[in-house]
Design a protein that fits this description.
By secondary structure, this protein is mainly α. It has helices spanning about 10-25, 35-55, 55-60, 70-90, 90-110, 115-130.
């Protein structure tokens, strides 16, 4: 006669997590770590703001003279990162493009906050002895 074990869903999830951890360094979802998905995440984030304020207003704000260079660098780095991840398949180049994306996004976001770009420039000067 076998004893039936009744577990709640949360107990089952804990047991499954413990079992996966016991197996070792196995990755459960390898697709989540690919550079292609990270780049697509940046595209989704850009589209979410367009959803909140409207696509026409978003494009108008992106093409504002204060933000045009950051927008161009951001879009170019997305294209470069996608190209490096999908066609070239070079992780180092993809990572560099993603870092460039992140920097352009910070610079773009700083344009909405008064004196934020000056603060970022001073921070870069203090950290890297460089001014943007």
């Amino acid at each position: 006669m076998s004893a039936e074990v009744h577990t709640t869903p949360s107990q089952h999830m804990v047991a499954v997590a413990a079992e996966n951890q016991a197996v070792g360094q196995r990755r459960i979802d390898t697709a989540a770590a690919t550079p292609r998905n990270r780049v697509c995440g940046w595209l989704v984030a850009a589209n979410l703001t367009a959803f909140l304020i409207g696509p026409k207003r978003q494009v108008t704000m992106m093409l504002d003279p204060v933000r045009i260079y950051a927008t161009a660098i951001y879009i170019a780095s997305i294209i470069i990162a996608l190209f490096c991840a999908v066609y070239v398949r070079n992780k180092l180049l993809t990572l560099l493009a993603i870092v460039l994306e992140f920097g352009a996004l910070i610079w773009y976001s700083a344009s909405y906050i008064p004196f934020a770009r000056a603060m970022v420039s001073k921070l870069m000067l203090a950290c890297f002895d460089t001014e943007f």
